[in-house]
Every structure is written in C-alpha cells, then in structure tokens.
Amino acid sequence: MAERRGEDEARRAHLRSLAAVDEVLREPAAEDLLARYPRLLVVDAVRAVIARLRADILAGAGEASVADAADLTPAMLVPWAARLLERAVTPSLRRVINATGVVVHTNLGRAVLPREAVEAVLAAASGYTDLEYSLERGTRASRQDHLHDALCTVTGAEDALAVNNNAAAVLLALAATARGGEVLVARGQLVEIGDGFRIPDILRESGAELVEVGTTNRTYLRDFELAWSERTRAVLRVHTSNYRIVGFTAEPTLQELAGLAHERGAVLVDDLGSGAVAGLELFVEEPALKQSVAAGCDIITFSGDKLLGGPQAGIAVGRAPAIETMRRHPLARALRIDKLDLAALDALLRLYLDPELAVKRVPTLAALAAPPEVVRARAERLRDLLVGDAAAGAGLATERVGLADTVARAGAGSLPTTEVPSVAVTVSVADGEADKLAATLRGGRPAVVCRVQDGGLLFDVRAVADEELGDLAAAMLTALA
After folding, report:
1. What residue ranges in 116-231 does DSSP mark as E strands?
2. pLDDT of 29 above 60
3. What's the chain's average pLDDT?
4. Any idea what DSSP says for residue 102?
C-alpha cells in the first residue's frame, strides 16, 4: 500500500509539473514558432504535447518514457511542439525509390507516369481547360470526349468511357445492365481484389443477384445454360489476374458466352482487370483486349494504373448500346474520372497509338521489357557509385557490396506466376542490423524501400530509373556508410 501511495504521489507531482499552454507560448523559442506558423496551429501543437504527456503520466508510464518532474519545463515542451508543427505543414506523400523488384507496387502508388502524362497533368492543374466545353461549338460537352477516339482506336471497340477505377467500372456496368436481375459468374472467378474487395460484394452493391455457375476448376457452357432463368440479365467473366487455377480445368470461350447471352437478350461483361494492352512477351498469358472485343463482349473493363501503365482509372469499352447505358446511368457522375487523371490517361493513350513508342516511353512497360543485360549494367553502375573511393572513406568497403541474380514481379495483382529475371545490389551489414537499417532508409529523403534477405539488404534495380541511381546511392551511403 505504501508503495502504491508513493507511485500515486509521483504521478501527481508529474501532473503538477506540466506547464500551462500560455507558459509555453511565452518562451523565446515559442515566439519563433509563432512567427513561422499561424498562432492557432502553434496553440494546437502545444496542447497536443501537453495532452500526450498527461496521458502517459496517467497511464503510469515509467521513468524512461516520461521526463522527470523537474524536466517538464515550458522550454522543454517547445521542441516537441516544433516537431509536430513541422510534420503538420509537410505534405504527407513523399518520394520513394522503389528497390523492391515489384514494378507496379500497389503500396508505392502503382504505375509511374510517362513524362507526357506528367506534363499533361501539370497543364490541366495549373490553368483552365476545355474539360467539359466544346471550343468549336461554344457549348457544354462531355469530359469523355477527350478519351473516346483514342480508346476506340487502341482497343478496336465501338464505344468507350472512363471512371475512377476498375472496381467502379465493374460496379457501373452491372448496375446499368443487371440491377434487379441475376448475373451468372463461374465459381472459380469469384476473386478478391486489393484491400479485401470481393466480386460478390461489388455485385451485391450493383443491385444484381449473383448466381454461381459450375465448379472451382471446371465450368462448361451447359452449366450456364442450366443456371439461366427469366431473371438473368448478364454473364460476367472475371479474369483471375492475381492467381491461376492450373491442371484439370475447363471454361467456355468468350464467343460461346457471347452467343448464349445475346441469344437470350442478356449482355456479356468481361472484367480483364490488369489492362495488358501492349504486345509484350511477358503478357502472353494475359487475355488480349482486342480478342474480347472481337468475341462480342458487350462491356470490357480494365484498370488504367496496372499493366496499362497510367493513372488510377477504370476503363470500359465495348458495344455502343451497352456503353451508352453505362454513360447515362446516375452512378456514372458519382464515379466519373477526375480531370487530372483524365489528362494523364489521355496523354498515355496517345503513346499507345504507336505501340513501339509506348514500350519505350511508358515506365511500367519499359521496366518490364528491359533486357537482363540492361538491368545488370544498371546494377553495376549503382555498385560503382556505392564503392567509390572506399580507401579514402568516400564509399562502402568493396567486400560489403555485391551483385545477385533475383526475380522481379509485375505487381498490383498482375501476372502472378510470371517471374522477371532481374539483378540486385546486395549490401552486407552487421548481424541483427538489417531491419534497423532498412527502417533508416525508409525514413530518408528520398525514402528508399528495399528487401531484407539473409540478414543483409537487397536493392533490386529493375524498377529503378537510370536517373534515380545517383539519389539512390546517396541515400544508401547516408544510411549505411
């Protein structure tokens, strides 16, 4: 009991020692903060510091966590408030160098935009544009007009529109064509996409009812025929872009599904997901978009920011009556594409009018298509930058730095079984230090995200641009030298 009373008294002493907000604001260092930041922001930061200290004290934080009563002076609180203020006014999104070997890294922003798209975004963001205005007629127009012709040319479809992501495109397609009715989906295609979103959930929100067809690995056209009812409005084919079912499998062709759907007055929706439009050898196992168009799919949906290599967007192309039904649905406005994404997507699609140019200029395609010898040369340049003049203390010791053959990935749930040969720079570190040093690299400016492997650090350079090598080497030397 005496020990408990002693702890309570120490806690009360800590609480009494906390400075008031006004006391902190009268400190000379706080006056400097008031000169640099709005007064209300400074006051909020000081209050947050005091509230955090009070909470720690009441929670019984130990001496190592909470300053002694004598140290909780007004002056001691100012630097903590300053750090809060600096964080508050600094944009949260930070530049990251991706040394993971995952090219379209969902957590790192997916596709890197080509220079043409970046310039288009800057132009759209820095002034007025003809987003929904016809300069020729002097009247209101649709923002979809900017994308329509390029999308139809690239895909061979009759009509096209874009919304804010592919899940939205699928939601809009089903809501516009099948609300109140049934949608037939092969059981093996009921996929879960990023962050826990599932095809059955999207179907439910569209107002349509899911009807599972066939078995997980084998589904036939007759299964769709047997499942058909007078309430069937659509057939949905979902490309399993983030996993593969192999071995004893079967599924009807798109031509067969289109024939069945059209014969019975329904539509065929084909969710391709990844948007592998370029003719890369790596994409050979991806369903070709033009084949979906030729097969008679009414609506084909795919992402703008996966293998297409553009901004976040959901693209729907296909037969004119079905796309027009989507365009006129009330959800279309709620899900419409933002003007900055539209500007980037428009510029990206212009590159695809010349397929060879797209492979060179779209960073996602260039990274995936780079020959192994090009990636190895990049890794060798990074190694040379790291070693530098090691004898003079200007770089890492030569024996700490090496090269390793690795396997890169497309990422973003695409090409799940495709391994892309790559090369990484390896750096050996002291036992038990790898995780700590990786965290230090993530805290740098620019931040660097690498892999921890076999107790060392591994920097895969397939997704690192040549112009990033200098910054990457500097960040690594700062953290590791």
Report:
1. 133-134, 139-140, 159-163, 182-186, 209-213
2. yes
3. 91
4. B
DSSP H stretches of helix in 97-144: 115-125
- Report the C-alpha gap between 211 and 93 in whole angstroms: 42
SS3 of residue 159 by DSSP: strand
Q: Compute the distance between CA of residue 225 and CA of residue 475 in angstroms, rounded to an integer.
A: 60
Q: Which domain range does residue 314 map to?
A: 115-361
Query: Which of the pair, 72 or 25, is modelled with greater confidence?
Result: 25
Identify the domain boundary among 73, 89, 105. Answer: 89
Cα Rg, the chain, nearest whole Å: 28
pTM of the entire predicted model: 0.88
Asked whether the predicted pLDDT for residue 278 surpasses 50, the reply is: yes
What digits encode the pLDDT tens for the residues 369-409?
999 999 999 999 999 999 986 555 668 899 999 999 999 99
Residues 76 and 121 in one domain: no
C-alpha–C-alpha distance, residues 246 and 173, integer Å: 29
> Residues, the chain, total?
481
Q: How far apart are CA 448 and CA 194, in angstroms?
A: 23
Rounded alpha-carbon distances, angstroms, from residue 114 to 136, 262, 350 = 29, 40, 11
CB 454 within 8 A of CB 402: no
3-state secondary structure of 219: coil
Same domain, 233 and 296: yes
Average pLDDT over residues 171-193: 92
pLDDT value, residue 68: 52
In this prediction, residue 413 has a pLDDT band, given cuts at 50, 70 and 90, of confident
pLDDT band, very low/low/confident/very high, at 164 (cuts 50, 70, 90) = very high
CB 44 within 8 A of CB 8: no
Element (H, E) at 469: helix 469-480
Query: 10 to each of 51, 74, 122, 228, 308, how far by Cα in Å?
Result: 18, 19, 58, 75, 62
Whether omega for the bond prior to residue 446 falls within 30 degrees of 0, making it cis, is yes
**Which structure tokens are listed for 171?**
């939601």
Tokens of 361: 């200029």
CATH, residue 144? 3.40.640.10
Does 98 reside within a domain? no
Residue-by-residue DSSP string for 399-439: GGEEEEEEEEB-BTTBSTT--EEEEEEEE---TT-HHHHHH
H or E stretch covering 339: helix 339-352
Among the listed residues 414, 387, 420, the one whose alpha carbon sits nearest the alpha carbon of residue 402: 387
Q: Are residues 172 and 192 in the same domain?
A: yes
Quote the percentage of the chain above a pLDDT of 70.
93
